[in-house]
Amino acid sequence: MKRFHLWLPCLVVMLIAWVGCAGPGGNGNTIKIGVVTSLTGSNAAFGQAHKNGYTIALDEINAKGGLLGKKVELDYYDDQSRPDQAVQGVSKLVDQDHVPIILGAYSSESTRAIVPVVAQKQIPLIIPTAVADNVMGTGSTWVFRICAGSGSFAKATLDFLKNNGDPKTLAIISENTNFGQSNNKSMTEASKAAGLDLVDSETYQASSPDYKSLLQRVKNKNPEVVYFASYLLDASTLMRQAEQVRLNPKYYTSAGTGFAAAEFPTPDKGAGKYAEYTFSVSQWLPSAKWKGSSEFDQKFFKLTSTHPAYHAMEAYAALLVAAAAIESAKSTQPQVLRDTLRQINLAETPFGPMKFDATGQNAHPVLITQVQGGQYKVVWPPDAAENKPIIPTPEWSKRQ
Question: Is the pTM of this model over 0.85?
Fold first, then answer.
């Protein structure tokens, strides 16, 4: 009995030490990284793109021996394309699974909902795709975004227009979500500063079956440019119905997302031939000149038999950044990872250079693409362009 009493304090100390070494998100043999994305619901296509990008990055990391000598696992939470579920996901990943860092969410709506939660729980959040600028508006030191925001989208689009025909009138069509509202606000302010006449601004309820009356109102204002902020299902419906009402602006432009999805130019999952000639902001294409872009494209095609859009690349890059932070910090303690992320400086990745400013924003360049022959082609800026833009957009009645 005396020997047992002597050994008991030693056992307690050893147990505490073992738990401390495992740290958040690990069981001693693995490191878990939390992911919130939309695997079901209206944004499932984008959530699956996220998962494919994460899978490729995870395989690369573990093929090189993992992190800190441990295998890496991803702990997914499906937010069902709903902000309230995204919030529940953060609570589950942090409080029950004890992950040291979270990647996500997909949509700006869900991401804005989880930003206060990660700040309250003091867990680093790396945002791969949410472009609404208000997701960065809290000033939280726990939030980092690798993609460009809606303000950059508007600026890049207007720069392209100014140097390619210099149109004078604009109409905005945006969905009534955080993503749509943010892009509408950014383009409204930027176009005014650029001297464009905003002749119409229309908002709509996402996933509606019929937008023809809205499109007819825009047609009656005869804008030279139409700027969309829409997810995939609505982007496809809007372009099909634009043909039906014969809406013929000189430029169909967009804030990416649905108009930049890999499925958008396809006839089975997108707008098919109705996507032709549309312009979109983009943050990456397989043809991008950053080292590793074509290799990622090859791996994605091997995994899915399709070529990726930038959403998958952003997820891939987000996991690479998280891995770099863990490896550099030699730790899975959230505060240590937060402080390390603020110092991250990756000069060369397949998504371009990665470095966060004082607000947690990565300075990522924005490309302008156009669907030509059923494929996205970079048309702006000139130093990145593959093809010249086709301007003006051919009228529907004159298309093949």
Answer: no
